[in-house]
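Homework help board

Subject: predicted structure for assignment chain

Our instructor gave us this sequence and asked us to write out the predicted structure in token form, then describe one feature. I got the tokens but I'm not sure how to describe them. Can anyone check?
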Amino acid sequence: MSDSTPTPQWFSPRGGTATDPGPATATGAAPTAPTPTHPSSTTTPLPPTGHGPTPPQGPLGPSGPGGAQGHPSPHPGRRRAAELTSVAVLAALLASGGTVAATRLLPETSSTPSTTSGTQLGRGADAAPVTQADASAPDWTATAAAVTPSVVSITATGRGGGGEGSGVVIDRSGHVLTNNHVVSGAQQLTVTLSDGRTFAATVQGTDPSTDLAVITITGAPDDLTPVAIGDSDQLEVGDPVMAVGNPLGLSGTVTTGIVSALNRPVTTQGESEGQNPFQQGQAEPVVTNAIQTSAAINPGNSGGALVNAGGQLVGINSSIASLGSSSGQSGNIGIGFAIPVNEATSIAKQLIESGTATHAYLGVTPQDGSASDGSGSVAGAEVTAIGDGTPAARAGLRVGDVITKVDGERVESALSLVGHVRERSAGSTVTLTVLRDGRSIELTATLVAKPAATSGGNGDEGGNG
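My token output:
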């Protein structure tokens, strides 16, 4: 095994169509459980292959957390991604680029203005469409039948080529949630439903900061099947999950596994809006406190659904870990990552309503650090700078403080803190557990919307959270 950590990358799959899944027949509610916290893994940005999402601005402060600089991906097709420090994380952000060499898409040329406000996502009550008689041995046939009609294949084309990815139907108005890197730069989009019908689509809105996007099916049929939306905060390590998508152009593919870890900081590097996808650009890394899963995820799965055994959406598949390779695109090695559905739907609602999204902001510059808790040393995010008048300043944070928890969830690095802040909404109140002078204290901060331009200034997280 290589002693170097894997490189996250984005892919855009080509070819292949999937067989149509049967209709869901079971109804009911699936049990949920509270979310545990887990140690986080730091990743360093690397260039991914295929279409790449624009990296988000940090919710914390000016300079970003320490991490490896992104390097050009050996794969020709997609975007730059990041490399996990303790976990090989290949950002397999959708587009299956395994068969797509030099298929990066050029900047988007059109987008559809929002025509809906306050759209109800999902199926309404969003009760689990499948009731599992035995939680330890799920009937995956029933789950696949319930979920596959809600997952689509996306084909994106541009002057430089084309690629394919996945998407999830999130309402009856024809809105499809996917990864930004799947559609970024596309001049033409088509969506293929599970029954084989194909429609044109336009970009409703993109959010490079979270690598999320919403596209709208043109002339959407009345019989669309929105996915049932679950609660990612209720996931527990060990829960069974299924990934549904279009890996390598093989639409309607399902794979199963478990939740391997939660709140796993994953960093990928993408391109800024309007950037030529064939050139590396200066974009802030996407940092996600991701769901880690053992379900097989491959190029082309990006933007697809990660669901629980009850058939509820719990995440948007976005990247995979890779041991790295000098040639070709890497595939699944049993470590995949998904954007938690609670974060994804929050962004999706904003994109549907306005085409853009706002992000939470704390106003600190963090770095990896540790502090004594009296009997030992605890890792966390050390505050190196605080912006004047920011939520951090108002909360009473000080330079030198080491933040170890956010709302009781562990923070083990600067990237982990960035991920925690980014997954929350502006206006939300968080409790920060801080080690200061050998004592643990709790401070309360109310996050605000991230300023339009904070890069390089005090209080700009710079990609750290």
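Reply (TA_rk): Your tokens look well-formed. For the description, you could write something like this. The first strand starts at residue 43 and ends at 45. That's the kind of observation they're looking for.
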